Amino acid sequence: MTKFAAPGESGSVVTFEPRYDHFIGGEYVAPAKGAYFENPTPVTGKTFTEIARGTADDVDRAVAAANGAAPAWGRTSPAERSGVLLKIAERMEANLEKLAVAESWDNGKGVRETLAADIPLAIDHFRYFAGAIRSQEGGISQIDEDTVAYHFHEPLGVVGQIIPWNFPLLMATWKLAPALAAGNCVVLKPAEQTPASIHVLIELIADLLPAGVLNVVNGFGVEAGKPLAQHPGIRKVAFTGETTTGRLIMQYASENIIPVTLELGGKSPNIFFADVASAKDAFYDKAQEGFAMFALNQGEVCTCPSRALVQSSIYSQFVGDAVERVGAIKQGHPLDTDTMIGAQASNDQFEKILSYIDIGKQEGAKVLTGGEKADLGGELSGGYYIQPTVFEGDNKMRIFQEEIFGPVVSVAKFDDYDDAIKTANDTLYGLGAGVWSRDGNTAFRAGRDIEAGRVWTNCYHAYPAHAAFGGYKQSGIGRENHKMMLDHYQQTKNLLVSYSPNAQGFF
Amino acid sequence: MPANRVDVTDDAAALLRTLAADHGPLMFHQSGGCCDGSAPMCYPAGEFRTGGSDVHLGDLEVAGVPQPVPVWMSAAQFEYWKHTHLTIDVVPGRGSGFSLEAPEGVRFLIRSRLLSDEELAELA
């Protein structure tokens, strides 16, 4: 076990500045209106830095800086941009612990996860897009003997990116890596709940990017996010969040006739077919862990497997074992590497989860374990901790239909394959799903029948680059995490060329 | 009192008075999905374009707010929520989305209870 020193304590691997401004045009600049807001750590609830409170003036300045940098950056060679991305990855790798602890402190999540998942995945993501842009091909279509259509990829120009608070650095990377690889300049707004860790990253990589290629404007959604989404100087908006803001962003984008990519969450089913329990072997253990994955990142994952569907013939045994497994989840100080579940990211998130636990109880769902807030004592008493919670109920209940975004799973049983698929698809969303079976045919058919963009089959919560991630139904538009995301950050230029010396014959 | 689908706490009403003074007429649209999903989003009236895919849950009459504050939800989401009564409350928090109250250091929050059979019959 290792416990990292908290930022601000002696021996900490990361030191936050007392204040962060906006990063615009390659330098830190104060907000036009001069206002800042306090940023607490969810670990203790205490403020550890303050952040520039951006407004439309700051967004204007950032978009102007990005537009100034865009022509030159857009003309760099893929090799050059790839090289920059590789250097970013290298810099991050050399500062893995620093970034991991910064992320834990800003978000509340366990450093166990940031060390093993968030930051290594982000590093690999930059490397993936460094490779993808080098290997991207244009197209040549032979129209007839003398006519050829050439298809070139061109950057869009300046793009706006609005980042969520659940994986602040990884989600920023999912958006930054393809955008920069494709030759775009970026104006990025971090979430106001977790605005600090991105600046630790910027300090590490600022010298690797030409001024104006990457700009960060901090602030609240309504004051900084909205003017960014509405700005006539951007050519695309990427957003991860929820449905109402997603619709509003589409509405703003319609005013400028620009594309959007949206990742708006889900209510992911995790289906356990009876044969999972045919032996108490390594695979059974893996499936049990798959059930407990709802607690990863305190449940603050768009693909949280928050609806577990278990076949009735194994229900009692499987769920009994799973509840025991969940009971063994270690909750504690997020900077302790033994801690498996840390703090919820903010007070309002904490309150929201408790309000869902309340309606779940009112609707008659049975609490199998957890169901309360957790007071971990000492300095952690001021933080936002919730016990991992397992509800047993019915798919029509609201706790089965809304993304609680907390460490809460709702369990129901199903009788047969058709019943499982019907319940799995009885949701507004279609982002992720899990299927567990020893029978390859069952697993394959279920994977194809579930209306979701990502179906983990005999695994869960793996996010490797090169596997497309995005939603069906109300879960959004676009596919991140894969080279196809480059298309979402590129224009297509078609040169239609005639090699015939002869007139076309019309006039 | 006739049955309704949506109500507001005293604290949330006080916040609506402040917001109405600063921003004029207001509206709510109930969100779904991840991150700040399930949060009621408060906008200047007309900022969010509602349409055929939305349901009007009711209007909040708040003393000191000149115009009623309509509350909307997508019709698909309403199908899963229609058996519950919603109360808009407010808690300290960081907020997100483009909701108006976030810079005040507070966040609107939905509290829910089951509608009684009598209420459901009246609202049907």
TrEMBL record, chain A:
Gene3D superfamilies: Aldehyde Dehydrogenase, Chain A, domain 1 (3.40.605.10), Aldehyde Dehydrogenase, Chain A, domain 2 (3.40.309.10). Residues 32-494 form the Aldehyde dehydrogenase domain. GO terms for molecular function: aldehyde dehydrogenase (NAD+) activity. Keywords: Oxidoreductase. Pfam families: Aldedh. The keyword Lipoprotein does not apply. SUPFAM superfamilies: ALDH-like. CDD domains: ALDH_ACDHII_AcoD-like. InterPro entries: Ald_DH/histidinol_DH (IPR016161), Ald_DH_C (IPR016163), Ald_DH_CS_CYS (IPR016160), Ald_DH_CS_GLU (IPR029510), Ald_DH_N (IPR016162), Aldehyde_DH_dom (IPR015590). The active site is at residue 263. Belongs to the aldehyde dehydrogenase family. This is aldehyde dehydrogenase (NAD(+)).
TrEMBL record, chain B:
It comes from the Bacteria. Pfam families: DUF779 (PF05610). InterPro entries: DUF779. This is DUF779 domain-containing protein. It comes from Prauserella cavernicola.
